[in-house]
Amino acid sequence: MKLTRQKHAKKNMGFYKNNFSFREPFQVLLDGTFCQAALRNKIQIREQLPGYLGGAVQLCTTRCVLKELQLLGKALYGAKLIAQSFQVRNCSHHKDLVSGSACLLSMTEEGNPHHFFIATQDHDLANRVRKKAGVPLLFIIQNTMVLDKPSPKSLAVGQKLQTNQLVPEHQKQSIVQLKEQEGLVKQGGEKRRKRKRAGGPNPLSCLKKKKKKTQEGQEPSAEKKKRRKRKRNRVKAEAVQSMQKNEEE
């Protein structure tokens, strides 16, 4: 069973690496519910998660999550201690703190540019994460951490990326820079027209022209034939006259 879970995790990680450029160290945002479930099921997150994801991991949270755990009091004191041991990522709620789920969801806006994983036991938050493309979801079942399979939204975007129908923004910028280096794009953004190079002569024009027989070229040959015929007739006539003259004598 453990090998099967690791096989599925490796397959899902390969999807996010190939389609959304996830790289080590993997940044995992955890909320209070995940920390509480790990404590209850005696899961050592820091030791077990890197082996499950197959790479180095950075465990992190936000000020909103820590504040929420503090307000919940003694019931989640252990979860608060676990969360406090993680790195704190800056969120946009400096003055007015929000709930932990709302804060984590805001950290993955605009296409999840920082490649965060979301680790939570909150079903509502998990369902909202699944509606986003390129946001891996972690949760705990009994005493095991599980990486959720890619959502339909992520699969659709991944398919478009594979068929080159959608190019990531950073790749578009790289393509533009390469074109500028090659001189294919001017500063104004207009494409530079390629000048046509002078080509060689048309090979068809180099062929030798066939000589045409004209009527003028045929006339001398016909005239010769007529002359030969007249000469033969004259010779025959002279021969006949000579024979008649001999007979008379």
Automatic annotation (TrEMBL):
Quote the Gene3D superfamilies the UniProt record gives.
5'-nuclease
Its localization reads:
Nucleus, Nucleolus
Q: Which SUPFAM superfamilies match?
A: PIN domain-like
**Region (Disordered) spans which residues?**
181-249
Q: Which UniProt keywords apply?
A: Nucleus, Ribosome biogenesis, rRNA processing
The record's Gene Ontology biological-process terms are: rRNA processing
Q: Name one GO cellular component term.
A: small-subunit processome
Lineage, top-rank taxon, reads Eukaryota
Record field: compositional bias (Basic residues): 224-234
Q: Which InterPro entries match?
A: Fcf1/UTP23, PIN-like_dom_sf, UTP23_sensor
Q: What is its main location?
A: nucleus
UTP23 sensor motif region domain location, by residue? 192-211
**Protein family membership:** Belongs to the UTP23/FCF1 family. UTP23 subfamily.
> What is the annotated role of this protein in its UniProt record?
Involved in rRNA-processing and ribosome biogenesis.
Protein name (record)? rRNA-processing protein UTP23 homolog
> What species was this sequence derived from?
Probosciger aterrimus
